[in-house]
Amino acid sequence: MSLKQKTISGLLWSFIDSFANQGVQFVVGIVLARILSPREFGLIGMLTIFIAISQSFIDSGFSSALIRKKECTQTDYSTIFFFNLVVGVFFFVLLLLSSGAISSFFNEPQLKSLIQVLGFGLVLNALGIIQRTILVKAINFKLQTKVSLVASIGSGIIAITMAVCGYGVWSLVALTLSRFALNSTFLWIWAQWKPTWIFSKKSFKELFGFGSKLLASGLIDTTYQNIYYLVIGKYFSAIELGYYTRADQFQALPSQNLNAIISRVSYPVLSTIQDDKVRLKTNFKKLIRSTMFITFVLMLGLAAIAKPLVLTLIGEKWLPSVVYLQMLCFVGMFYPLHALNLNMLQVQGRSDLFLKLEIIKKTLAVPIIVIGVIWGIKVMIFGMISLSLVAYYLNSYWSGRFIGYSFLEQIKDILPSFLLAVIVSAVVFTEGLLISLPTLPLLIIQIITGSLLTFGICEKFHFKDYLYIKEIIKEKFLMQKK
After folding, report:
1. 155 near 178, Cβ under 8 Å?
2. Which H helix or E strand runs over 359?
3. Distance separating alpha carbons of residues 443 and 306, to the nearest angstrom
């Protein structure tokens, strides 16, 4: 299979994996949101930052280092497997010991027992990191799709059953733990890789040289991404945090999953042609254009239909989350741009510059957080939007220097897609204001209008990025027929 065919196949299965898997989780989240209260979601939101930071330490950038390394040995994989497992156990114990302090910090007694149980998920997840990394390196997303889908469906059934039976917030804990357990179990069964009893200092030092800088930058980014949960939980309330987390999860479905789809495939693919600058720029340019065409349409469209979507799916009790969702869509809109440009720095082996950029950008976030505590959550989100624009400029400026693809050239490439999305979303949003219908029929009409308008404009004016995506889809179907 050629590199192009491998890329197209990887993109397709990565798309199926992310959207089928996240689609199941999204549906499960909707069902749970109808059964549970915003406060219960807020309690789990308070613990998110502690789990996320622990996960960053467990991986420590080694997954990216293994993917980038052209030839990995069984020694490499086994060494990192045992490192991941030991660190996973360490942070589980650390969370057990600090559970009382975490509970006191938020003044929520129930958090102590929640974090003690939820922390075991770190060990469960660590057991499957290397198997997942091997599949990504091989651009084998078909098997990953199978594993994650089974895990999401199984954990969803467990959590919904517990919620119906009255277990409340513990159903959300069970959702996470069972998904980690099922994921790791099936990766061990189906991925056909097992560790050997070996730990190489030489292998560890070689991979850690690259991964350590990604660990530091990953910790900074993870802290930044989740610090808002901590701030809202500490200075506002569990209920307000519940509204925010639900809005954040809605906007993350298209933005972060689309980025995951592209990044998981593009990183190993671009790494194979890292020495060919011309070819690298050509492929990276296509990725930026096609990714942002989809992202702009989805995110601005989501902002336009936010109110009927929230009311239809999870009900009136979640109405305060609508305005958060609309604002967060403008934050998430830039997420794939950040990630793709940072990906390019990793491909070029510049994890040191990756780290420096993360330090600069997250330092700029400090005043935004302080302002949010003083002036409220909406002002804080507006600051996040402003920071996203600054961060994109910094990321694209430095990644562009290595392959001759400047910030202004990127803007020129993605501007037509942005303008198209603005026009379509403005029409859809206005339609929602003018049409007086129940939320479900209104939502359906808005989605149909947005879809027809987008495809109509793209076909009429032969929109380049749309045609490129259309050609990829056609080519994949031709590959399937052969």
Report:
1. yes
2. helix 351-375
3. 9
Each domain of the chain, given as residue ranges in start order, spans 1-235, 237-482
pTM of the complete model: 0.75
Report the alpha-carbon distance of residue 464 to residue 171 in Å, rounded: 46
Residues 6+ apart with CB under 8 A from 181: 124
Q: Pick the more confident residue, 60 or 372.
A: 372
Chain position carrying tokens 């198209």: 420
Q: Token pair of 344, please?
A: 């390019």
Least confident of 97-111, 156-170, 294-308, 352-366: 352-366
CB 42 within 8 A of CB 238: yes
The Cα 256–Cα 258 span in angstroms is: 5
Residue 464 to residue 424: CA distance in whole angstroms: 17
Residue 177's identity, in one-letter code, is L
Q: Are 233 and 42 in contact (CB under 8 A)?
A: yes
Of the chain, the end-to-end C-alpha distance in Å amounts to 12
Q: Residue 53's Cα: distance from chain center in Å?
A: 15
Query: CA neighbours within 13 Å on the CB side: how many for 210?
Result: 17
109: helix, coil or strand?
coil
Instruction: Decide: helix, strand or coil at residue 107.
Output: coil
Q: CB within 8 A of 223, min separation 6: which ones?
A: 49, 53, 362
Only one residue has tokens 């009311």, namely 311
Confirm if 11 and 18 have CB atoms less than 8 A apart. Answer: no
Residues whose CB is less than 8 angstroms from the CB of residue 416 and which lie 6 or more positions away in sequence, other chains included? 463, 464, 465
Compute the distance between CA of residue 51 and CA of residue 30 in angstroms, rounded to an integer: 23
